[in-house]
């Protein structure tokens, strides 16, 4: 069974899905914070989705730097290795796709790391937004580059395009 909660953020409404084991999906579902949407709505929540919303609110209020939630994303073994490596990139810092490929012991898998990063189903909590190009520029983000820039600015990351 999948449980769902919603949380309002400065960048739009976020849907949080979980099963009984952990978070399965965190995605932006409304285009902008000014959208007239019922925020904080809980369709069929559980303790995990409620805690995730609480931690996401604290993150956006700069009171939380590291999430402490059980995660249960669906993916391949390789994707899971990439997503685990993403979680080692500290708040306010960035890494390149090559850095992640090296971290998982597969330096030639830069493109595959990029694909796995792009398929990360747990936005923000698994910080794919902290991954940038080797030339220190912003690269793709499922939530859109403006949101990626916002998240990096929120965390105080310094970079070429988002300063």
TrEMBL record:
Domain Methylguanine DNA methyltransferase ribonuclease-like span(s) in chain numbering: 4-73
One biological process term in Gene Ontology: methylation
Keyword Protein biosynthesis among record annotations: no
EC number(s) on file: 2.1.1.63
The keyword Cytoplasm is annotated on this UniProt entry: yes
Entry similarity comment: Belongs to the MGMT family.
Additional information: This enzyme catalyzes only one turnover and therefore is not strictly catalytic. According to one definition, an enzyme is a biocatalyst that acts repeatedly and over many reaction cycles.
Protein name (Swiss-Prot/TrEMBL): Methylated-DNA--protein-cysteine methyltransferase
Organism: Alteromonas gracilis
